[in-house]
Amino acid sequence: MIGLGKKDEDGKQVRIEHRGKYTRASRTGGVAVRAEEKVGPLNLTANSSKGLRASTRVANGTRVALQNGRFQLIGRWRAGPLGFNLSKTGVSASVKNKAGTFNFLEPQYSSFKFAGVQLRGKKAAQLQVIYMLITAAVVLLAFMARAAIYLLWLLALPILFVWDLLVGFVQGVRDA
Question: Which residues pair with 92 in a beta bridge?
Fold first, then answer.
């Protein structure tokens, strides 16, 4: 009912809130009542805290809206861990990982979570950079180890082939 125990796709606790058909109550947003109706390609929404909005989908991940007389252009696209958001005020590019989210264009909107403690802002951006550098180093070391094993195997194959030929030749001469 309020999200306790509910996990997202990464296995982390979702927001603690109540979402009903016509109501929503959250810790930060307060309580709001809303009604939605679809009229042709338009979505009409009346919300007690946000006002009136008419919106429509322009393309996949992109919509335009008129909310309280203000024009809104909103685009949200994700490809794996990478995200790109478009709004009237600008663009945002981010990457999501197990420790949180790092925003490339607006680092102050980054988040970092460790041992149940979530940080946001500049400190989170710094910790995200450290986390991503450590992760990149581990991935690079694993790649280098695999590449070294592969190269050693490729170098060993011709030597083992020649060795096998010589042993077979010597045994053939000795048996004859």
Answer: 85
